[in-house]
Amino acid sequence: MKHVERTKSGSFQYRRRVPRDVAAIITKREFKRKLGDSEREALAAYPRYHAQVEREIADAKLRLAGAVAASQPGASEREAYAEALRRRADLISAGVSEEGLALTADSMADAYPQDEWEPVGVPPVEHHTINLLRLGPDRYKAPEPNLQDALRLYIAEKLGDEGRSDSRTVGRLHRVVGIAVEALGRNPLMTSLTREDARKVRDRMLGRVKSNGEKLSFASVKREMTTLKAVINFGIAEFDLPETTRNPFNKLDLGASDNDEAESEKRHPFPAKVLKSVCERVRESASPELALIWRLLEGTGCRLAEITGLRVDDVKLTGDIGAQFPHIRVAWHENRRVKTKASIRHVPVVGDALEAAKVALAVAREGTMLFPSYGRKGGPTAASAALMKHVRLVTTDPKLVVNSLRHNMKDNFILAEIPSLDQNLILGHALGGVGDRVYGGSLAKLRKTTRAMKKALGIPLSDADMRQTSEETREGET
């Protein structure tokens, strides 16, 4: 038992010095507690108290990190206010009276130069601490949230611990909000945003040019505006702003023909001859791992990141369900985020995709990822670049890319007259009403989507599939 010693009287006690890096938060010199007179008593009492000490040290480190962050030049007023509120709470928990809080505030203020009314040159944390000690949080309210505050909260709440480590996504969010702040010449309060502000930001985004001198595409601007709207909508809701607060970016005309511009940039499905040539090229020249990824993309209609991020356990080909309805599970895990809630799903694997899945499982590997070379941060980008080299050797059409395989699958569904619900369940598109989103078991959906996938890919239905289809038809007629 670490940090345990035996006293002269023969009892056992826990004794541990407070780490220097948190001494400013944990003001006592050491953690000390008697665990028992016998080794048995000590063994029973040790785990709980040791865990309590570890939690206290961890909390202190978090608070210290928050205090440091709140003191940085880029920290927001709300972060500084939150740290000041914590400092006030510490004094109260230490038994300091209201009069003592006021005296502490006066002592802090006296440390700075004074003008006629108040100290000058006070850092934000100290400024808020002085006012909170004098007035309390009921009379001295938190600063109004601004756009950067909304961004910080959006990243913390929407991305979570794993998402915050995704530097690419976080960087994109900061870049989009940074453009808005630059266009407005200020970090606006959420309640002060106007329609005129929205137009200024829109014009700045539409006027941007890339490094090669070309204007940023309409689709890129549209994506960035959608991201900005999401951050603002989230901030309005989570900061409990007045009901009169509106997002001025909602329904904002981007000043271009949405249909014409979007049509010119839309990805197209591969023509049959081109797709055949690309498939042959990939199977012959690409690495075995990359060729398997392509076959699964072609046979499932999944997004590239959904395939590269598969774990071995996500491929279900055996067991009571997997043997009858082979499928892959697209889920959120530590190495891969999914695009939306609708993206979390079970996708049938039939035909060549099933054979590719079997081969992928049979390959000896270390770790849990089905495709170790690409099941990592940046893996989907690397896979896309590698696959596009093979695509470009066959076609230079800019509208034909790896993601065109999803359009091919969509075309297959349309031509096979697959119901929209089945299509969305397979492709991971948003479902309609609450009944489609919430109700129904995964087995029933998998049974139905497996038949839909076979029909779309021209694979004959089994006798069991035919019987099930006939039964459903008769039930529908009844």
Write the layout of secondary structure elements.
Blueprint: E1 4-6, E2 12-17, E3 30-36, H1 39-71, H2 77-93, H3 98-110, H4 124-135, H5 147-164, H6 167-184, H7 195-206, H8 218-238, H9 258-265, H10 272-285, H11 288-300, H12 304-308, E4 315-316, H13 319-322, E5 327-330, E6 345-348, H14 351-362, H15 379-392, H16 404-415, H17 420-427, H18 434-438, H19 442-456, H20 463-477
Antiparallel strand pairs: 1-2, 2-3, 4-5, 5-6
The structure class reads mainly alpha
CATH first level of the largest domain: which class?
Mainly Alpha
What number of structural domains do the residues give?
4
Gross geometry: extended
Question: Mean of the pLDDT scores?
Answer: 84
Order of helices and strands: EEEHHHHHHHHHHHHEHEEHHHHHHH
CATH topology of the largest domain: hpI Integrase, Chain A
- Contiguous runs where pLDDT drops below 50 for at least 5 residues: 257-264, 433-440
CATH architecture label of the largest domain: Orthogonal Bundle
Side-by-side strand order of the widest sheet = 1-2-3
Largest sheet: 3 strands, antiparallel
Question: Could you give the distance between the termini?
Answer: 71 Å
- Fraction of residues in H or I helices: 55-70%
- Quickly count the helices: 20
- The overall strand count is 6
Protein name: Tyrosine-type recombinase/integrase
Domain Tyr recombinase: 265-453
Organism: Albidovulum sediminicola
InterPro entries: DNA_brk_join_enz, Integrase-like_cat_sf, Integrase_catalytic
